[in-house]
Design brief:
By secondary structure, this protein is of the alpha+beta class. Helices cover about 60% and strands about 15% of the residues. The termini are far apart.
């Protein structure tokens, strides 16, 4: 026999064929309770399932039709600066704010360098966009992956020239950009200025620095950073174990490939 119930309180217990009342127990976050009873046994199995909403993944972002049309038009006009300027002036500037950001994000995702830079320069001069730190962080990450360090530095310095204060993510993206081109000393300089400005490094900051310092064999700096994890990271012992585990796994994989 299977009994399915959906109460917030369970008020009954089963013992063989008898039923006894006991003190109610609150079962939070349950959508149903399935009770399975076998006639020849005294055991009762209760399966508690979480609410269906906990299992659902957030819907993926859908780019609007208007944004897609602008992206396609820009891609078709990429060899004509005049057409690009016309599209940006007549169509791009009429988009909603979310669509404007989606256009830039999609051009970056598809690795359209010149178009991304053109759109970025236009966006950051528009009112309401110039103070969005995520806008600059995304661009630094995009340029860093392409090893365009001078352009990434220009954007990072431009943020401070505008009187803005780079946040944790922007510092981390700049650190990553320097590491991409093997400029470890510059990466550590950014890490130092990050702390001096009162911006706290996070798990990703430490992960990037520790793993890459280990690659170049700077054990002293690695140990120093691990010590600093205790100042900035929650559950530092667990975090350090994760970093070391990933590093060991990466070494084994590289040896296997070799």
């Amino acid at each position: 026999m299977i009994i399915t119930a959906r109460p917030s309180l369970v008020q009954w217990s089963f013992e063989g064929s008898a039923i006894h009342r006991f003190k109610p127990i609150t079962l939070p976050c349950l959508s149903k309770i399935s009770v399975r009873i076998k006639s020849n046994e005294r055991r009762i199995k209760i399966n508690c399932g979480l609410r269906a909403s906990y299992k659902k993944k957030p819907p993926s972002k859908v780019i609007s039709k208007e944004a897609i049309q602008v992206i396609q038009a820009l891609k078709l006009a990429k060899s004509s600066p005049q057409k690009i300027d016309q599209i940006l002036k007549e169509r791009f500037t009429r988009l909603l704010k979310d669509d404007v950001l989606d256009v830039l994000s999609e051009l970056q995702r598809q690795n359209y360098l010149d178009l991304s830079l053109k759109v970025f320069e236009l966006i950051r001069e528009e009112e309401g966009y110039g103070t969005m730190l995520s806008l600059y962080s995304d661009m630094i990450m995009f340029l860093g992956r392409r090893k365009m360090i001078e352009e990434a530095e220009g954007i990072f310095c431009g943020v401070m020239e505008r009187g803005l204060r780079p946040d944790t993510r922007m510092h981390t993206e700049m650190i990553g950009a320097y590491i991409q081109v093997g400029m470890m000393e510059k990466a550590m300089e950014i890490y130092g200025s990050m702390k001096e400005s009162g911006c706290k490094p996070d798990r990703l900051t430490f992960m990037i620095l520790i793993r890459n310092l280990e690659k170049v064999g700077d054990k002293e700096m690695v140990e120093a950073l691990k010590e600093e994890c205790f100042q900035f990271v929650d559950y530092p012992d667990k975090f350090i174990q994760e970093v070391e585990h990933k590093q060991k796994h990466a070494k084994k994989r590289s040896l296997h490939i070799a």
